[in-house]
Amino acid sequence: MRHYVFIFLLLLQSAILSAPLAHAQRGLKRATTAAQQDTPTVASQDTALVAGQDSVSLAAPQGDIATTIKYSARDSMRFEVGNKVVHLYGDAKIDYGDMKLEAAYIQINYETNTLTATTLPDSTGKDTGTPVFTQGPETYAAKRIAYNYKTKRGRISEVVTQQGEGYIHSEVVKRNESNEFFGLHNKYTTCNLEHPHFYINAGKIKAIPNDKVMAGPFNLVIGDIPTPLGFLFGLFPTPKAKRASGVIVPSYGENTRGFFLNNGGYYFAWNDYMGTRLTGDIYSLGGWNAEVSTDYVKRYAYRGNFRFTYDNFKNDEADVIGGARTTDNAFSQLPSSRRTFWIYWTHNPVTKPGRGSFSASVNAGSALHQRLNYNGSTQYLSPTFNSYVSYQKTVPNSPFSYTIKASQGQSTQTGNMNFVLPDLNFSMSQVSLAELFSDAPSTNKWYEKFTLTYNVRASNTVSNLQPARTRSDFPLLEAAPADTIDINFDNLQRLWESGEKQASHAFGIGLGNYKVLRFFNFSPNVSYSETWLDEKYSFRFNPDSQRVDIDTTNFGRVYQYSAGASLNTTIYGTVNFKEGKKVEAIRHLVRPSISYSYRPDFGDERFGFYQRTLIGADPNTNEAIYQDLGRFRAGLPSRGLSSALSFSLDNSLEMKVKAKSDTAEAKSEKVSLIDNLRLSSSYDFARDTLRLAPIRISLNTKLFKFINMSFNSTLDPYEKDTLGRSIDKYYFDFTKGKLGRISSAGLILTASLTPEAFRTDEPAPANLPSLEREPFDPLMPEYVDFKIPWTLNLNYSMSYNRSFGLRGDRRLTQTMALDGSLNITEKWKVTYNATYDISNQNISYANVQIYRDLHCWDMSIGWVPFGMLRGYNLTINARSALLQDLKLTKRSNTGYNY
């Protein structure tokens, strides 16, 4: 409705009125002769009727017309020369640039300077050919259009215009020379039907294109039933392709914190690339919440979002009793009053070759903030949150790259926080030693296969929770309890000093890959790593105090190295069956592999990593071994010589079957029977006893094309004494098929079922979009697909652990989870999610969601029957994002935060 200076004015002023009438007739005859060699029939002196005329094109003369004007009619075009009127009948069309008009009938009157477009009745009397005007992305439809191209005023009857996601139905619209239009008896809706299910009824409106829409008294009408919801006037900004600042209207409701106004505030549109939302919540029972959120983007460079939330939580009942308690009142289950905060920041760069990239993912704050202000069960149940900020770059035309990073992790259950700051990493990808030290061309010598990789990482790991020191760790040392350091500005130095500062160097030396006896792959390897630390301890027994004294130096160094080799090959065999059988062949693939590794005993005194210290007068019975790297136990080499031979055996089994197609050209199909069956263990020659490591067996396969099975077990090969300790005597007996005692086992079965999985030969998709949504989310997600009749995802997991001896026991844990959806009708859908603990015989978590598609409205019902999240929710809301606040919500007061 904003662009009614369209093609009709240009057509009449430039193509007809600017030239003499005789010139217009001669131009029309020439165009007609070019398209059709028939002579037009002249009905009278004043009226000319051109029959069979399909289209006419007028080349653009010099003047107001910028391009060629094309108009056509399916039935006929009639010219009344004396009355200066042009009639276009049947699918009348006019094209001019990006503007287009279509109608059953179009009349151009250059005597009164008006044009008219209307519908025409068909043989049954039904109106057809509604006038439709299109200019660029905008489309207008009306039953009748009358326009004066001289005064630039118009009148449109029964018009429907589309403005973004909304539609405006007007009984009469008038337009003035300033391109403003005035509507009488208007309906605004987001329903795209001719007779909408709901609308906002306004008697009068005035629209200023690209500026605003003003309305008189209006009210909401649902199902043709007027409601009292409305106001005396309305003012709606409608800027085009321009970001604008403005007020954010809050939503209202009720939960355990009382009645609330939610997400009200102001939006600041700084420019086309950055905007900030300043919003807040307020609750009738006390407390408030404030949030600042900024979105930013730079095309072809980066985009991100930064959000800071501060919550002043109030719970007067818990404050009175001095803490939380469990009663029937859900609000009393919440903690006492407190103030919390949360920082959320994401920054995603566009990676470009040869240039560094900065990225960030920060999700951190107070321990209870996410549980008090959660948006769904996933956030509420998350035990940990992790964050990082990093800069990474690969040096062009070189094998070198580096990363500068800071990371943080926190547990919402224990309150423990770990920081790695800074975290510097420099690495060199695999390079050939021959190319590294010489520019000579390769001669394919065996030593030219040697390769080298290098990586160094310097970091400082800080934790607010210092573990306890016990006497079992350090005999005769004073036991130290666990200590928690509050994270604030006063404790920054203490946190920094308690951090584990170290630099780790790792060298990977590849000695090539060689063929042995034609069928075996032989790969030797050497590795070396070294770690620099900021502390090193030395221990000395003080006979006077009968204590062990500790001396600390500011630098420590630890290193370790090993060497080894591996040998592997592939063996396969195929069994073919007779023609005409369903099964054509079975193929067995075996991949045996053995490897040997050697590592010296780094507990030997010559390395200096472990220190033998007297703790009494008798050196034979009062001697202890201390590791001299203090709290750096993770990087300390293990004690004892290792000379181990490892072996593994991988198997896969597949079957070749005849295709179901009856054609002779049909190809055979391969069906996997066993994806992988693996058996592995190792034998350490350097150990005095118990040289054979536990035997591990794992199996992965697919059953019936839609069930994935994963199985693993660990077999203990040794006999046990009465205390459950292993003795140097083998338990297995190959003659009886015994490989060992099962000490642990696990089984996981997953299945994703859809109707397509049974109708086709293709397996079910591995990652179907989950239909579960967060409970009590007020808006229906866009990915709920009513076209899928049903889905069912099943997950069964079993874990078995056994301890031996007189007090040995067996522990079996089993859980069953299912989720899916069911379409009751084309418009009703039910989704469900439940987890059942078979061992404890209880339901861990469950929720049910019911959706109803109301065309332009959505209805959802959610129910969580168990746990802190228990309760129900009923929401009816308009589907369009423009009317997201037009909703009705009813929540129960029995569940947490509801």
Automatic annotation (TrEMBL):
Q: Which UniProt keywords apply?
A: Signal
- Signal peptide positions are 1-24
- Keyword Amino-acid biosynthesis found: no
Q: Which residues form the LPS-assembly protein LptD central domain?
A: 213-718
Q: Show the coiled coil region(s).
A: none
Starting at the broadest rank, the lineage of the source organism is:
Bacteria, Pseudomonadati, Bacteroidota, Cytophagia, Cytophagales
> Under what name is this protein listed?
LPS-assembly protein LptD central domain-containing protein
Q: Which domain of life does this protein belong to?
A: Bacteria
A GO cellular component term found in this entry reads: transporter complex
Mitochondrion as UniProt keyword: no
What PANTHER family does its record include?
A: LPS-ASSEMBLY PROTEIN, LPS-ASSEMBLY PROTEIN LPTD
What is an example of a Pfam family matching this protein? LptD_2
